[in-house]
Structure formats: C-alpha cells, structure tokens
Amino acid sequence: MSDQTFMAPVWHNGKALRKGYTTGSCATAAAKVAALMVMRQHLIHQVSIVTPSGITLNLNVESPHIEGQQAIAAIRKDGGDDVDATHGMLIFARVTLHEGGEIVLKGGEGVGTVTRKGVGLAVGSPAINRTPRQTIESEVREVIGPARGAEVEIFAPEGEARAQKTYNARLGILGGISIIGTTGIVTPMSEESWKRSLSLELEMKRAAGLEKVVLVPGNHGERFVREQMGLTADAVVTMSNFVGYMIEEAVRLGFRQIVLVGHPGKLIKVAAGIFHTHSHVADARMETLVAHLALLGAPLTLLELVSECGTTEAAMEHISAFGFEHIYTHLAGRICERVRQMLRFTAAPPTCDAVLFSFDNQILGSNRPLREIVEEMQC
Length: 379
Known about the structure:
Layout: E1 10-12, E2 15-17, E3 20-21, H1 23-40, E4 46-50, E5 56-60, E6 62-67, E7 70-76, E8 90-98, E9 103-107, E10 113-114, H2 130-144, E11 149-155, H3 159-162, E12 173-174, E13 185-186, H4 191-207, E14 212-216, H5 219-228, E15 236-238, H6 243-252, E16 257-262, H7 264-271, H8 285-295, H9 300-307, H10 312-321, H11 327-342, E17 351-357, E18 363-366, H12 370-378
Parallel strand pairs: 9-11, 14-15, 14-16, 16-17
Antiparallel strand pairs: 1-2, 3-13, 4-5, 6-7, 7-8, 8-11, 10-12, 17-18
C-alpha cells in the first residue's frame, strides 16, 4: 500500500471512505521513478509526485529494473474505496534516454489506441489524456534536465482484459485502458454526499456576498471561464452531472444570475430536459442533436451521419462540414428555455444563460452574445 496519510478520508453515513489515485498519477509516478533510476543508476523503491490538484502522493514502486540507458518501473493503481475496472492493476513506464532533446510519449501493451475522432485525442494516438501527458512530460523533464531527450512508454499488461469492463470500445478506444485523471485523485462518494459537498460550495459563495454564479461540469469548464470569459474562479462552482440539483440549490440560496458553461457532450442533455447528465441515467445526445438539426433544416445525409456517431465531438465534425455551426447558439437558447420551464413555479427565478465550448477551449455558441453575459456577471 502507498502512504495515504496525506489525505483525509471522505465520511459517509459514519463510515470513513479512503481516497485513491488515478491511472494518470500511476503513469506519472512510474515515468518519474524510471527516469530517476536511469539518471542515478540504482534501484528506487518509493517515489513522490504532486498531483494536478496539489496533493502529494508517496507511492511504492514495483518491478524496478535498470539496463544501461533504460529503466522500467510500475505503480499499482489504488482507487481507494471507489473500486473501478483498473483498481489493483500495475501501470508501467519504460524510460529510455537519448540525446535528441525531445521527450516522446508512447503507449505500449494494454494502453488503448484512439481509432475514432471525438475523444479529444488524435486518431492513432495512445489513449493518454491531456493532463497525464502534461504531468508525465513535466516530471520526466525535471529529472533529466533541459538538454537530454527521452522516450517514455506507458504500458499495462492487464490493460486489454481490464478494458472489457469499461466504455472504451464504445468510444473507439481499442486494445486497452485509458490513462486518465484531471486531478490525479479518486474521491469516493455516494451521490447524495457528493451533491451536498457541491452545494456547500454554493452556500459559501453566497455567504461571501456572491449573487451571480457560473456552473460548470468540471475542470475544463472552469478553464474556459477563466481564459475565454475573463472571470475569476470565485464566480465558478462545479455542478458535475447534477445540473438540476445545483440550479435548484442556487435558486434556494437566492442567486440572481446562473450561467451554465460546458461542452455540448454534457449540456446538450439539458436541451432535452435531462437535468442529471450522467450516461447511466440518460443519454439522448445524438437524438437531441438530430432533432434540433432537423428543426433547422439540415439535410437527411447530415442527420444520418450524426445519428451514427458515438461521441458529440465526432458529430461536431460533420456539423462543421455541413455548415450548421449555428446549431450551438440554437441549443444554448433551448437549454435556457428548459431551465425556465423547470423554474416556472419559482416566484423570482434568476436570469439563466448558457455557453457551449469545444475541447480546444473555443466558444461554440451562447443564448446571447458572450460579451453581454460577461458584462452582466461583472456588474
């Protein structure tokens, strides 16, 4: 077991639930210690990394091996009390030094390969998401210095078998698991306690005098708000999949303006009146896109192409090719309409706005000009 003393447990119904760490953290730690072993030319049995969320992990190293300018190390995935398909498996990194100056990241055995557009990674690339890519490269660069280069291969011998228990195949990720994690930490929570923790953040901001709030599904939304809307994190609260719950909490607390900001993959469900956006609850993304494209007069060919897509991002490529990007402004308006319907019995409902953005952090559409929304948030 790794040293978990750095993290307080999550309490639910009087029971302490242990946190864990992501496959991205495992890959980062494995790559860092492999690089350290090559540089120092001796085996290392424990390594520490700082996760993107700022938490320090002290992890035990398994199967360390050095051979000349190459080293291999593994970290065992520990999901804490949130056991998933990858819990308990070994994530390996093989680091080979060279004089090229560049760090090249590769996926080996058991790491899936992207075969379709729409997951934010290039077709043919290993399924190593953006945040783990950045943390792996950063940690290795810090170890080897600015002049040397390295090839870093992430592999997981059990990955192909474990991936059968995930949604990877549906997303066009074949041959193994994904290396994921935007915070590096796995937090086990029941749905009710999770929702309550999100609501507490709303309560704290309201108590501090905030009357206007931006609700985002996760980290990508917060980044868009900061970089493209110019608003500080003080105005942002994560809603995860609990859109309806968080809107109702914002109304209860007396917020005057609510702005929903997210990728169409999440927020499009709200346009269909789905206010809990987890795929286990409901998934009508393509049906909603097809219906609203049809309302805008899209040709049958486009409707059929979108209907066959597995991800919203893939559908967006076809929408762009046919020149129907105005669908996003239309959907943003529809989202606001659905929220107004939900709040129709509220005595003084808040102003509602919706903003949709792409994986590359660009605005796709909003119910009214983005400048107006931002100005109203700032006044």
